[in-house]
Structures are given as C-alpha cells and as structure tokens.
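Quick one: co-fold with NDP.
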Amino acid sequence: MSNIQNKVVIITGASSGIGEATAKELASKGAKLVLAARREERLKKLQEVIQNSGGQAIFKVTDVASHGQMEELAEYALKEFGKIDVMVNNAGVMPLSPVHQKKINEWDTMIDVNIKGVLYGIAAVIPSMRERKEGHIINVSSIAGHLVFPASAVYSGTKFAVRSITEGLRIEEASNNIRTTIISPGTITTELLEAISDPELKSAIVEDCKSNGIEPASIARAIGFAIEQPSDVAINEMIVRPTIQEL
Ligand code: NDP
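Sure, here it is.
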C-alpha cells in the first residue's frame, strides 16, 4: 500500500498547473485532498474529475494572502477529515520585471502570495501537526530561489525566502517529527507566465517555456515521492529541471 493512501493533503494553488497536477497524482494514490485557490469553477471541475476517477477531494475557495482564510481552510480540513497530514504550499505568482520599472503593486502581490501565503499556510497547520507529533509541510520554491535572472530580483527574493523559511522550520520542528520539503522547479509549462505585464519580456519567456518546459506532472511525481517515504525519512530539498535547461 502506498504511504500516500488515506493521507489528508491540503494543496494551495490547486486550480491550475503544478497544484492541479499534484492533486491528480496524489488522488490516484489514495490521498484525501483539500483543494484551495481563488477560482471556484476550476476547483469544482477538478473535484469532479478526481471523484469520477474514484478519488476523494473537497475544496474551499481561499486567498492565501489572507491569514484568516488560511486558518479557515485548515479548520475545514480538520472538520471534514479529522487531521492534516500534508500541507503543500504551492500557490504563487511571477510577474517578472526589472526593479527600475517600479511595479510596486506587482512586488506587493508577490510578497503577499509567495512569502506571506506560505507563512500563513504553515501557521494554519502547525498547531495540529505539533499536537499529533506528525506532519509534512511541502513548500514550492523555484530554480529562481537558487539563482537570480534578469528581471527576477523580486520574484527570486520571494523564492529565496521560501527556502530560508522552510529550512528554519525544519530545524525548529525536527524534534516534533514534522517533515519539511522544498521543491524547486525549473521551467514548467503552466499559466504562471500569464502575469508578466511587459509584453516583450513575456513573449521571450513564453517562447523559452514552449521549447524547453516540461509538464507539471513531473513536479507532481516529485511531491508524491517526498510524501511516500517512510515517516522517518525526510526529503528536505529537490531541484527538478528539464534535462535541457542549463541555468
Ligand atoms: P499557475 O499559474 O498555473 O498556478 C498558480 C496557482 O496559484 C493557481 O492555482 C492560482 O489559483 C494560485 N494562486 C495565485 N494567487 C493566489 C492567491 N492569492 N490565493 C490562492 N491561490 C493563488 O503556475 P504554476 O503551477 O507554475 O505555479 C505553482 C508554483 O510553482 C508557484 O509557486 C510558482 O512560483 C512555482 N514555480 C513554477 C515554475 C514554472 O516554470 N511554472 C518554476 C518554478 C516555480 P487562482 O488564480 O485560482 O487563485
């Protein structure tokens, strides 16, 4: 039996891309899923797809930038399923731009979603995990959390932050038997690039993604691999790139 079977897993950003692929992968291995994002129609459709294939999923419309909504999400999971085994803090945005363009609203959104969203996700699940002395928090960083590219200063800043927050959490919670995993994807074909507001930058990056990107299912499998390890084994960090991606 897979070690994923019957685990209660919350996934943020489940309405598209990596989150959606992860939901399908984990559902196929018997997880009980709590899907979260802002687009209700997408969540409802994904729930139907999972249920039609014999899987279990519920959903809650949630903005990860709201501490209150993230607490409500965790409460909903506890009410419906009685426990939270895994939190996948996957929701993220990437409106890349050079700093001198002063796209302050985009900076604020990246900080709110990519950093505060992850912190609120951790805050919402950590009390019940500490109480049970069991749990797994998986945070999605990026290759941009290891390297800085032109126009990625702020985005990279948020993804470096995800890695340092996760490593700090690992040190603090190891003695409570709580596992942490940082997943750093390379170029993955998803809707992430849609938020880039500079048309030239967007078309260059979209072209690169079209020719080099790999499917979000590759990240879903990596997340599944981390979850299915025996509870005394923690996969703390993974970089998953397309084979042909140089940087
Ligand atoms: P998508 O754009 O396909 O998915 C992003 C998800 O985040 C959507 O489900 C979106 O749902 C959700 N989201 C955005 N803002 C919020 C919010 N405020 N509250 C709740 N959910 C939110 O992109 P990916 O699947 O590629 O992105 C997933 C993660 O992977 C991100 O953290 C991204 O930074 C990271 N990543 C992606 C890479 C890639 O090449 N694609 C490379 C490296 C890392 P909704 O709009 O419905 O709320």
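If it helps, DSSP finds seven helices and seven strands in the chain.
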